[in-house]
Structures
1.
Amino acid sequence: MRFFQHFGGYLLFLSTVFSKPEKWKILWKQIIIEANNIGVGSFNIISLISGFTGAVSTIQIGYQLVSGLVPEYLIGRIVRDSNILEFSPTITCLVLAGKVGSNISSEIGTMKVTEQVDALEIMGVNSSSYVALAKIIAGFFTIPALVVYAMMLSLVGGAISGHLSGIISVEYFVKGLRSDFEAYSVIFCMVKAFTFAFLITSVSSYQGYRTEGGALEVGESSTKAVVYSCMAIIFFDYIISQLMLFR
Amino acid sequence: MIEVKNINKTFGEKHVLKNISASFENGKCNFIIGASGGGKSVLMKCMVGLLTPETGEITFDKRDFVSMDYYQKKDVRKEIGMLFQGTALFDSLNVEDNVAFPLRMFTNWSEEEIIERVNFCLSRVNLSNVNKLFPSNISGGQKKRVGIARAIALQPKYLFCDEPNSGLDPLTSRVIDYLIKEITEEYDICTIINTHDMKSLFEIGDNIAFIYQGQKWWEGNKEGIRDSGNEEFLSFMIASEF
């Protein structure tokens, strides 16, 4: 019952967020600032995580394919598919749910408990749209860009770790990356990235906006934002995989 | 002029405002006083539209605010300025951008005109050289002044002040009080001040409404306090150690 209550509240929140902004110029400025916070602010952590994800997946796949019957270049192919289809979009977005989601929720939650949201309302500003719309739009474009970057870096990380550990040469790894490549897997990855980006920013904004109380409640909202965003990502990961990979 | 008629507000089983009626005049500092938890903040929130009363009328110069739709309320809200207890300045914006916020949002002025107006409002509240500072870098008294500057930026007809002196030293409190009084008289604003600071009331108060346990117990001016004959009101005055 509570789930439906929250889901209804979330939909109502979205209906007020996606209304005509007061001033397009102000919205545009906010989008640039938020894109910088989300995109540039997450660049280092995404670099670190995606590079190592690719590296570790190469080592683990190499460890499992120690057989003379399996061509070496298959390691590259499996690393490519696993990173494009799953690791890059899902792990990147789970990490961003923690970093960006908690940030969005605590920022809006603090605005709520310190009456800044009330100040917006009294001025005649649509507060939910003002505090959330720019974040959702900025996240919708920067998070998929980070996923593309993570995708590329994970393959580079995989090639480097394969070479350094002597599992597979760079030449064979690249051969594996090129073999039977289907552009559809990138489309699948991007569909996931855009969906997850929307979920992270909108769920976190909603959690922040419904904060009431003080510092303790801001912390609670922040935790809930991360937990619910991660749950939504995992759930939609399954739904999108089912719909797009087994048509 | 703002009038409230027969306002009732409940939260679940709790009847917070019971049939409250009062009127607040232009060019005067109208005080709503009462003990904490008495319902004065709820009354103010109903008046500015943050809460909706179950019954009753709130009229801004004969325009019934409660029955208005979202867009009509929005137009009235552009005529309202509010000074919050905790100032509610936007943390992510500096002082200049805080004061400029309603101007950028609701006017088509050029950036030069906006900055000119911002500087005027800041000078009106006796602040200078703080334009580029963030709220976290200024004192409590300065924050209140910036809050007032933001509230008057759009030349409001109605100014609401929620506990304007809370957390301030007596000297700064007095400065803020007189600033509110000056602005009210100069621009003929209908100012409503929500407080339990009796010193403020005796310094600048014109009209007074005393709210106790969700009901209006007394209404008048400060000259009439002694003769009010209202026991609850007088004991509140005595308890405030004025």
Note: The helical segments of chain B are 40-48, 70-77, 95-106, 111-124, 140-152, 170-187, 198-204, 231-239.
2.
Amino acid sequence: MSDMKKENLNNTKYDIPPELQGQVSITTLDKIYNWGRKASVWPMMFGLACCAIEMICAAASRYDTARFGMEIMRPSPRQTDLMIVSGTVTKKMLPTIVRLYNQMPEPKYVLAMGACASGGGPFKEGYNVVSGVDKYLPVDVYIPGCPPTPQAMLHGMITLQRKIEAEHFPDSRWYSKGSLEAVPIPVLGPDIMDPRQFELIKEQSLARLAEQEENASQVDSVEQKA
Amino acid sequence: MTEQVLAPSSELLTRFPEVVTADTRKSYEGYLVDRARLVEVATYARDQLGYDYLSSVTGVDYMPDGLMEVVYHLYKTTGGPGLVLKTQTPRENAEVPSLVSVYPGADFQERETWDLLGIRFEGHPDLRRILLWEGFDGYPLRKDWKEAYYEEDGKPFKSRWPDAHVHRAEDKNPYQKNNSYPAGFNPETYTPEGDAALYASLNRTKAVYEAKAGDMDSDLIVVNMGPQHPSTHGVFRFVVALDGETIVGLKPVVGYLHRNHEKIGERNTFLMNMPYTDRLDYLSSLSNNFGYALAVEKLMGIKPPERAEYLRVIMAEFTRISNHLFAIGSFLNDLGAMFTPMLYALVERELILDIFEAVTGSRMMCNYFRFGGVARDLPEGIYEKMRELAFERLPKQIDEIDHFLSNNEIVRSRAQGVGILTPEQAIAFSAAGPMLRGSGVPYDVRRADPYSIYERFDFEVAVRYHGDVYDRFMIRIDEIRQSIRILQQALRDIPQGSIQEGKPQYQVRVPAGEAYGRVEGPKGELGFYVISNGKPNPWRYHVRAPSFINLTAYEMMCTGNKIADTVAILGSIDIVLGETDR
């Protein structure tokens, strides 16, 4: 980060008295805070499918995410600030994923790794597959690939670091007044149900029922005529 | 195991006239059994004919005939070809007797058939949905069941090809998601069924234990592990009932990665399924390719040329090594040796993945096999790399891993004598691969029913006799050594020549019929049951997934052990959720 170089730190619009130059640095709170945060991302140890294997490879010796300050993986959502959705999100798994996301402390980020997490991938049409985790959770970075190579994974994480670096206190949703609302947890019914869509589901399925009844009565009348 | 002279299976016809008839449909094999006497016939096949190993159970929906069929593939653990039994039932209120009493390994497979096809198994002790959840609307593998993004019965969809219209499936759905609900459904008054059936099942096991324990005043604790747990190798979940720290009941819950392989597979054309098989057991994609290619080649009646056969064996054995390295690493992770052994194992695995990437174009999802051959020949310089690995590096590294891990005090005390599976149990529960051989049953499909060119190679079937976690760990090291032996011979003998029988083509013509292709995958016997009706898409596409079926014995192996051992036992089974849930 070029802004954090020593020369730049001392080269601000504020006048630093000559006796303090070289000892006192002036920067913005955003910069120093984000700089600290970006190199200490703790991802959740959370593998869904094939991509999880590449995530493990990225953390292992050849690719080594530790070089970028994100090697500490924690299985508990309470200790993490990054959820790597590494694989196909299924309807059966979705309530758990949303619950895990809600349990993560803020600020929190979601990284959709691979085609499945980003948009359903090859399994998009499947009856038990959620076509993209962004239908339910806010995603920060998408990594393409099936599965993405460890290099792509590293690139995705560096992209996330850039995003963190560019954050600005007054605009971040974590630091505004009031706590963030939890994402409503989907319910497993005849199909997965998003609580935000209950009204729509009711409306649509009643409309379908009416349509079916109408068709049935038409068939009846045709039969009667015959 | 009976050591008698085994009668030919046509004995079934004479022994059970009228009940058993030969399946005379064109290119079909096996026998049709009247469902009323299925249990009797199966018992006879097991006890008198020696078909003691139930490989696969699956259902087929013959909608045009108004029939459901359940197909059983039986084998002998002494080797040789199999016996296929089929039983039919009407589609409405489909019901056949359960074979769990004869073959306990049918347990999960019958539950899966009930879950996906809606065939009820009369007499099954615990018939619940397994891959989907209780309350799911319908039975998705029935031919008249349509998913929310349904377009047509078979690909390529007319909307996409040949005119190449691009549209998002989301835009056609009112919810912008691939959801659909029954007509008249009201989510506000709906109560989800949740895990009630699961806990009812666990309570039955608890009640049996409590009755045995007498009136001792102790409460059982129920613990949930997963689906988000670092030691469950993905999204596997199980619920245990504990007396103190001792396990008295355990119910695995799978399906958190159910990606609808079979439904999508029946919409795809035959070749389109090849990359999907990569994603079954994503640690050993080339073995999966192998099994599927064998099944379809059986139907097509073709054989790959010599060089392709050698390439297939070489790639499959490299896959086995890389899979076992990963299995050993993650098993040590589970025991608490967090990540150091894994790092060493992954170094070697990366070298093998480099070869895969160079030859097939991808590290993990290789998509390398084609019907009647393989996709590409070796690029320049790779043959030398393979030789270097197989002759120099891998043997040394395996010795090192063996040296540092096998005699380790902690590994021994955590693993020896834990999670014992006797040979009789292993066969009865249809355990496969390292689980079966770790229990003293020398059964390896490469030897028992040789496919491809495996009968040419000199190797031993690795077998160990204690049936505990330690033996299942050691058997993987043994198998890596045997794989290296096969690799050395294959690399020495590989001929020059063509790698594809006939012209490579996207749309293969597969004659009508059925075929069951099975290979010895790293996790165990991997089978593909494919039915073609002459159309571009398979009518039925079923995967006999060893990870899934190996879990059938998991409850029995854990019962009586301590809670901390569940993780070690699970690690020794070596499941991959992509294959367990499909």
Note: The mean pLDDT of chain A is 85.
